[in-house]
């Protein structure tokens, strides 16, 4: 009887293999039916919001140095992308890598646009629902409203960014997010994927970069809290001054933050990661 031998591979996929895998996954994502795509997109919004919630709680009263506070906050936020990648969900920023399948002519421009639109809206609904749940659960009232104060201050800072700053931070953020997804595609186990996520995501959060889907939770949470007397008092205690939140509006959320950050995320993930790696590894194959 012939002896059957099986090879157990533990090493990571090579960058060239990753490129082919990302392209293939992109085709699968583009061909998901609407209901599955939209449901998974809402889950991704929820998952990223969970990371944002944990981030807010962990750093809200930190007495560590600024750098160490940002570091532990970044590690906490990793929960979001770990849930997206391991549990399975459709995240707009990660799906910017679908440009690789598009430029290889494996999917059409219509499929790419439909995927991004459906997933973006689903992410928004999922993240917004978490803001409403946290508001109703009064999780923001923890530690004498200081958690809510931190959430409000985060939201206010985000809508105060100049357009070019918000755009640039969006570019850099999604370059790191898509690199995290790229590294995940090199792994063969759940442990590989989690370790691949930790450093790029911790870096983007610690550096104060801007993620459109995370902001779909952060800023609505601030909008829900901006007129709460207890939270306003807590912000004054936390900062040692009376703060002006008049600029924190729904219009500012959409126009001053979400729009430039989304554009930046597309450039950072789709062009600086997806298109560059396509050019290196798949251009010849595509021809």
Could you tell me the radius of gyration in angstroms? 20 Å
Structure annotation, total helices: 13
Cα(first) to Cα(last) distance is: 46 Å
Number of strands: 0
Helical content class: over 70%
* Low-confidence runs of at least 5 consecutive residues: none
Overall average residue pLDDT? 95
Question: Based on the structure given, which CATH architecture is correct?
Answer: Up-down Bundle
Looking at CATH, the homologous superfamily is Glycerol uptake facilitator protein
- CATH fold label: Glycerol uptake facilitator protein
**Order of secondary-structure elements:** HHHHHHHHHHHHH
Q: What overall form do the CA principal axes indicate?
A: globular
Largest sheet: none
Tell me the fraction of residues in β-strands, as a range: under 5%
Text of the CATH class:
Mainly Alpha
Structural class call reads mainly alpha
| Overall tally of structural domains | 1
Report on the architecture of this protein.
With 287 residues, this protein is mainly alpha-helical. The chain has a single domain (15-286), classed as Glycerol uptake facilitator protein (Up-down Bundle), CATH 1.20.1080. It has 13 helices and no strands. The chain has helices at 15-30, 34-59, 66-88, 92-95, 99-103, 109-137, 146-159, 163-184, 190-206, 212-225, 229-239, 250-281, 283-286. Helix 8 (163-184) packs across helix 12 (250-281). The chain is globular, with a radius of gyration of 20 Å. The N and C termini lie far apart (46 Å). The mean pLDDT is 95.
């Amino acid at each position: 009887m012939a002896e059957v031998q099986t090879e157990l591979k533990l090493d990571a996929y090579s960058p060239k293999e990753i490129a082919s895998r990302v392209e293939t996954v992109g085709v699968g994502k583009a061909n998901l039916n609407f209901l599955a795509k939209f449901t998974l997109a809402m889950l991704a919004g929820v998952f990223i919001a969970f990371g944002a919630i944990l981030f807010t709680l962990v750093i809200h009263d930190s007495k560590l140095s600024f750098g160490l506070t940002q570091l532990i906050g970044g590690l906490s936020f990793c929960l979001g992308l770990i849930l997206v990648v391991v549990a399975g969900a459709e995240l707009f920023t990660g799906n910017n890598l679908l440009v690789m399948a598009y430029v290889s002519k494996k999917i059409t421009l219509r499929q790419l646009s439909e995927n991004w639109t459906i997933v973006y809206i689903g992410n928004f609904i999922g993240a917004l629902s978490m803001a409403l749940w946290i508001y109703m659960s009064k999780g923001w009232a923890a530690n004498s409203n200081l958690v809510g104060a931190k959430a409000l201050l985060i939201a206010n800072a985000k809508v105060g960014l100049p357009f070019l700053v918000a755009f640039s931070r969006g570019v850099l953020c999604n370059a790191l997010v898509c690199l995290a997804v790229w590294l995940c595609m090199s792994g063969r186990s759940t442990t590989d994927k989690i370790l691949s996520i930790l450093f790029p995501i911790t870096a983007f959060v610690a550096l104060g970069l801007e993620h459109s889907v995370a902001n779909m939770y952060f800023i609505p949470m601030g909008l829900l809290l901006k007129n709460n007397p207890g939270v306003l008092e807590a912000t004054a205690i936390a900062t040692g001054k009376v703060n002006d939140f008049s600029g924190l509006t729904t219009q500012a959320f959409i126009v001053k933050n979400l729009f430039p950050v989304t554009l930046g995320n597309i450039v950072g993930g789709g062009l600086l990661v997806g298109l560059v790696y396509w050019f290196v590894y798949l251009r010849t194959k595509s021809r």
